[in-house]
Design goal:
The radius of gyration is 31 Å and the shape is rod-shaped. It is mainly α. It is built from two helices and no strands. The chain has a domain of 78 residues.
Length: 118
């Protein structure tokens, strides 16, 4: 899985998703292999109930992982929104302080200009 992004948190999330998906793909067949082989017992086609159970388990695991990722993404979105709001407030405050500094600098420069030559 190749995700091109400059956000380190998103890259970590994509990497953990790929790892979790790989792990689930490897674990599920091994976990159900014994029961599947016992139920099959040499028949030409594997029993439908074994396949259905495996499909249900894979689907449930996938849906749970997707739900978990959605929750994580919603938390990241909330954090991003709150950080964005904070940065806007900080920039507004900085702009106000900067304006005050410019006014004070102008006042000081005018006062120095009015001083008598020594």
């Amino acid at each position: 899985m190749n995700v091109g992004t400059s956000a380190p948190g998103l890259a970590d999330l994509a990497s953990s998703l790929a790892t979790a998906l790989d792990d689930n793909v490897r674990i599920l067949p091994r976990r159900n292999a014994g029961a599947f082989r016992q139920a099959w017992d040499g028949q030409v086609e594997p029993p439908a109930d074994g396949l259905e159970a495996l499909l249900v388990e894979v689907s449930e695991t996938s849906m749970q992982e997707i739900d978990r990722l959605i929750d994580e993404l919603q938390l990241l979105r909330q954090k991003l929104q709150s950080d964005s709001d904070r940065i806007r407030r900080d920039l507004t405050a900085h702009e106000a302080v900067n304006e005050q500094v410019l006014q004070l600098t102008k006042i000081i420069a005018e006062s120095v200009h009015r001083l008598p030559d020594a």
